[in-house]
Amino acid sequence: MSAAGELDDVECRELSRLAKKSLRKSYMSSTKTQTGAAPAQACWNCNAVAGGGHFCAACGKIQPLADGADYFAFFGLPQKLKIDEAGLEQRFHQLSWKLHPDNFVKASEFERNLALERSSELNDAYRTLREPVLRVEYLLLREGVRKEGTTKQQAPPELLEEVFELNESLDELRTARNDGGDLSGLRVRLGEAQKNFQEKLEEIDAELLHVFSEWDKSVDAGADDNERRKQMAKLNEVLNRRSYIRNLVRNVAQELEA
Prior knowledge:
Elements: H1 9-24, H2 71-74, H3 85-99, H4 109-129, H5 132-142, H6 160-179, H7 184-220, H8 225-257
Helix pairs in contact: 1-5, 3-4, 5-8, 6-7, 7-8
């Protein structure tokens, strides 16, 4: 998994914002029909079945966002975690052109609002789905498996001894820095520990991609809710371990740079 998939604190907050925004949308404000009724499956303009796309298949008018639509559905994708990222980017550029508000300057205010809303949703969806870690975080947040501020920051049992030694070394480095002591030996030791945990992070990334594949197989097989919950629990567990080790690597890097 590339470094582009890393989440810092700002990105984590942004992801939570996007997920909550997606979850709480009722699409009742700017997407009400001109008569004030909530949008239905029928096209607001011609009453034909709109088909669930961005535009009515019959009259071509832009449509309100559907209740409960998620970022995967916005791009016409199943809720799979391994996706064609080049294809996603291509679809993003196509939709950016089709939904751009400049294309609706002569349309009604209602249609201009729909274009603005869909353009905003497009950008949010693309920012989330293009990164593997953001993608799975979003899925689990949306499914209620992972909640803002509840990520477990607990050392994996198999790493307790190594984490204890690392924290001791970090304390020693801070003390030596405050006392004006020799830092060279401690820096070497921490550099080796950082490399060790970076390798563990790469192992977890490989494991996460494997769990992605297992999830996608369950989607293809039409797995029941019980099986889906098991898969999501596994995804969440791997993400928690990844988050903990990533934070260790980042903390060591910050101390070495101080």
